[in-house]
Amino acid sequence: MVCLSVYNSCTTSSMSSSDDLPETEINFDESTRHLGSNSWLVRPCERYGQQYKDCKSMRARVHQYFIFGHSIDCSQWSQDYENCLKFRNSKKAEDLDKVIESEMRRKEERLETMKANDVWEYRSEPPTDWRKPLPDWFVQRNQFSLLSRKQKERQNNTNVNKT
User: Fold this and answer.
1) pLDDT of the residue at 162
2) Which pLDDT score is estimated for 69?
């Protein structure tokens, strides 16, 4: 599964190797401490290549036209792929910084759309009565649920093991 993270739309990619990739390009050890605190944002280089390929695919183009009315610019995925490969080969922090900057822009764009959502009212703290007991009808309805039965079985097994 490949997601266009800016727009939160996902498509299935023909490249199956994405599941075999690590979460990040950077292996964290003593030699990588100088790379900065946001270096964990950098994905494996192959993921940027997959995102670019997926973004340019006919299926993605149809989806983009349906959602946005035009196809989107995929060049940033290509630039990130190239900069990531440069970093992989040279280990220069400048190349990594370009990819991190791009990832930060993507993150800001995602957060911008979330903050622009005026359907939900965001809380600054939890409701005051969030720990009040559940209503009786709810407790009775769930008394014989699968979760309730498994919890009782687990408690019985714990009690048997203690004796």
Assistant:
1) 67
2) 96
Tokens read off for 99:
């990819």
Q: How far apart are the first and last CA of the chain?
A: 49
All residues at 6 or more sequence positions from 6 whose CB lies less than 8 Å from its CB, including other chains: 106, 109, 110
pTM of the model as a whole: 0.60
DSSP conformation class of 19:
G
Domain boundaries, given as residue ranges, for the chain:
2-116
Q: How long, in residues, is the chain?
A: 163
Cβ-based neighbour number of residue 72 at 10 Å: 17
Tokens encoding 154: 């687990």
